[in-house]
Amino acid sequence: MPKPGELTFVAPRGAKPPRHLADLSPSERKEAVAELGEQPFRAKQLSNHYFGRMSNDPASWTDIPAKSREKLTESLLPDLMSVVRHVSCDDDATRKTLWKLFDGTLVESVLMRYPDRVTMCISSQAGCGMNCPFCATGQAGLTRNLSTAEIVEQIAAGMRDLKSGAVQGGEARLSNVVFMGMGEPLANYNRVLASIRRLTDPAPDGFGLSQRGITVSTVGLVPAMHRFADEGLSCRLALSLHAPDDELRDELVPVNTRWKVAEVLDAAWNYAEKSGRRISIEYALIKDINDQAWRADLLGRLIKNHRVHVNLIPLNPTPGSKWTASRPEDEREFVRRLQAHGVPTTVRDTRGQEIDGACGQLAAAG
After folding, report:
1. Active site residue 359
2. For the segment 249-302, what is each residue's pLDDT rounded down to a tens digit?
3. Does residue 273 carry a catalytic annotation?
4. What angle is formed at CA 261 by the lines to CA 259 and CA 267, rounded to 5 degrees?
5. How far apart are CA 128 and CA 140, in angstroms?
6. CATH number attached to the domain at 21-76
């Protein structure tokens, strides 16, 4: 990481991230190593250090000759991102990290430590092109897709810090990953899918995390949802619905003008059937906008008797927004109405709100 005041190279806009081990499948790693004049088995050794031991210190790779380490590190483990700053809250149990990528692009991730688990919320794009008006990330617009390795490295860095005890609370293991940071994951489909493989393939091919601990969010890109259902994964799919009627959802989630509520829900039920996982319906409660009791009843009628859970999110404030969270009494009534329809419902813990690290707040301000 560069020292304060040190000049750093910033790639021109539009340049591709350098190739990284995490971009490559196991077979591609062997080919890449062979191209460097090294024996193919070095690919497995290198993968074991990065994925299995979570080590990014070549000096500790004593099973690889020093000259080979230098060559492999330079070609397959380039620095993709550097920490601009960490900001913590909740007695240091929640930590937001602002990253600077190789081309100067900024993205954010959030690590949340709970008594029984550790979750990381990661970004799949710099910015977001979905333009949802109540979301700071959406209002910033889309800068670019992240590479597979840029997605994976957010997790790798968090796992290394947890292993070393650098995160408050001592050594721990990551248990859950949510693709709910900056970006629409299914709009960066191939790289997100590849990153899921890297996160869940057993070591040394990947980190060996459980697919059931991975959650992928979407605003409802229907063709990509059907494609995702055919991948044979057991990840959780979270649908950011935010309104049960097309008139309002057209305003809150502009992609709804292309794929309507009924079509989006059908795609969600298809994923639930093929994956065996229940769908998480994400619903940001916005005062006097989408929190009426009749909308709770409409939502309940649409989704009851399906494999589903509703995650209500009190709207997190963003600078300049005209909208705010629902009144407590309206939130309670919304919950009561959904539960009356037999729909499992919870209200999300707004972790990280005071550091702009909660849902909808990530804007990567430098």
Report:
1. yes
2. 999 999 999 999 999 999 999 999 999 999 999 999 999 999 999 999 999 999
3. no
4. 75
5. 7
6. 1.10.150.530
2-27 as b/e: b if 16+ CB within 10 A: eeeeeeeeeeeeeeebbbbbbbbeee
Model confidence at 15, pLDDT cuts 50, 70, 90, reads: confident
CA dihedral defined by 193, 196, 200, 203, rounded to 10 degrees?
90
Burial class (CB in 10 A: 0-12, 13-18, 19+), 85: exposed
Q: Which CATH number fits domain 81-355: 1.20.1250.20, 3.60.21.10, 3.20.20.70, 1.10.10.10?
A: 3.20.20.70
Task: Give yes or no for residue 352 having a pLDDT over 50.
Answer: no
Q: Taking the model in full, what pTM does it have? A: 0.91
- Give the DSSP H or E segment for 87: strand 81-89
Alpha-carbon Rg of the chain, whole angstroms? 21
Binding residues for S-adenosyl-L-methionine are 183-184, 217, 240-242, 316
Report domain extents, the chain.
21-76, 81-355
What share of the chain has pLDDT > 90, as a percent? 81
| Rounded CA separation 199/206 (Å) | 5
Residues 210-219 have pLDDT tens digits of: 999 999 999 9
The pLDDT value given to residue 92 = 80
**Active-site residue, from 38, 108, 150, 282:** 108
Residue ranges at the known binding site: 128, 132, 135, 183-184, 217, 240-242, 316
